[in-house]
Design brief:
Layout: H1 2-6, H2 16-31, E1 34-36, E2 39-41, H3 43-46, H4 49-73
Antiparallel strand pairs: 1-2
Helix pairs in contact: 2-4
């Protein structure tokens, strides 16, 4: 099943792994302060509304892909 999610296929032409790889680092960085290049990195000071909206759109796309996959897999 993992291969189906990584590589586009007829009937399921999405690459959910690519989207996940783009979103995952932002999820981690956005939760907690950290140190980047020796400097304190504070999420609320680093992310803009545009950044949040971009991740929101990608997350909504993943939810749609997941729903489409379930429908395709179970032939709903």
């Amino acid at each position: 099943m993992a291969a189906l999610l990584r590589n586009p296929r007829r009937g399921f032409p999405y690459n959910i792994a690519k989207i996940s790889n783009e979103v995952e680092p932002e999820v981690t960085w956005s939760r907690y302060p950290g140190v980047d290049a020796g400097k304190l990195w504070i999420p609320s000071e680093e992310y803009s509304t545009d950044d949040a909206n971009e991740i929101k759109e990608k997350s909504e796309k993943v939810i749609k892909i997941a729903n489409d996959f379930i429908s395709w897999w179970f032939r709903l």
